[in-house]
Model the fold of this input.
Amino acid sequence: MPGLITLIAIIIFPLFFTVALTFSNWSVANAGFDWVGGRNWSAMANNDRFWASMFRLIPLSFLTVAIQYILGFGIALLAWQGIAAKRFFRVLWLIPMMTTPVVMSVVWKSIFNETVGPVNDILLALGLEPVAWLSSSSPAMFAIILAEVWQWTPFMFLLLLAGLLSLPKEPFLAAAIDGAGPIRTFLKVTLPMMAPVSIGAIIIRLIEASKIFDTVYAMTNGGPGSSTETPTYYIYLTGLRNFDLANGATLSITYLLVFIALLTIIGKVLGRLSRPKGV
Amino acid sequence: MVLKRILATLFVTLWSVFVMLPLLWALVTSFKPPEAVNRGATYIPFLEFQPVLTGWSNIFGGGGATTNLVPPLLNSMIITFGAAAISLVLGTITSYGLSRFIYKAGFIKNQDIIFFFISQRIMPPIVLSFPFFLMLRTLGLLDSRTGLILVSIAGLMPIVVWLMVDFFNGIPKELDEMAMLEGYSPIQVFARVILPLAAPGLTVAGMFAVIFGWNDFFYPLVLTFGQVVTLPVAILSLNATVTPFWTLSAAAIFAILPLIIFAFAMERFLSKGSLSGAVR
Done:
């Protein structure tokens, strides 16, 4: 299998290389493997800016994925029930997924521009105070979340619609015969049956959302200050902008370990929650 | 029921508007003269401003601008299609093997190998960027198209394998066996019997590989420094200077248009492909 060999060459070897880097002193000025023991690791543990960026993923990825899931499910339900089955709408709704994230972030940046952007213009027209969207921390966070929701809700929609289309018809007929209303049918039939697809979609999106980089890089550069920095962005600054490769590698391995641990826990918890009770 | 219908229509309309707005804003802004941008937000062409082509001529080196997006466009195309094609070939062969033969290396079985491929999509690119950077520097491939293609394969091949293993599993094994009885060698079976049947799957896998390859920004940002500029990086460098929003918007539309056209073109081909598959 040539594919497997290629992948091992370009993934596994680099990974071991990164681990080796974390025990070295490698930077631009000093290229090479000088063994420095655990120095990089203790520096990592005390790096407040790094841990702040890790905790920032809680609003940035969990909140965005939650919004994407609710919106995506809503639209998928409508498309599924034939209310919006028009092919035109389906294609239209998938467009954001195909646009380049970083390019759209630039467009969002122009939309949220404080002096010439339309958002503040509309706020003014409504008699509200203009907001310093990208130069104060909470509004900047909001702008990033909005851009992410725009970009990736279609992906959620696509997966959930595919899931809905593959559901069997019988349980819905049974629910209708029993006289269950639409809300009851949704809660007791649709939602439980969609649990496996939902979990899959949520986990895929959580994985992608915790790698968030493009949007932050293009819209705020992690600013104002470091208030919208994500781990990927901060590691990029450390390792590849300031070329402190050893420290950057240490941070990246830490990030990877936390990432895998959290994903495993989340996967397990979601899996248990979705299991039908009393069966 | 009527209320529900109204609410649903409202929701659909609002969502469609939300989806379209940023794109429309970029499209309208790309035709604005500089004054119409700097004076404050303007929305409607002809009424609020006279549309001009300043932004569009700027991205092709016109109007004394130093930017020309044609070379980045070519770079992006070469890298995307190169990496997608290689991933498609390698990934398809691998998936066929994983779907038809049993591999065993100690406790590692086919399922584990498949998961290994998929898990590469989970890997945050930042973790791999350090060794990639040093490896490409050692090989002298930093800031080159070949280097970027190599790196992109690592990201694109898992998508192909993920989709194609499922697809091959859906093609009955009896077909292979019948072809073998006819005296085909395993390679002939793959090339003459299975590949034509897998055309719809290949189209989808190729489409995804191209979309992800085209939209990648992180690796080009980290691994190139001006010799090889891809489209997203070129647009970001426009952003870094005093932002001329008209040029920027034209560039943005220019960058996302190829993929939207590509997707629509492929979509038509896709439905044809799946149809011919169903007839057989």
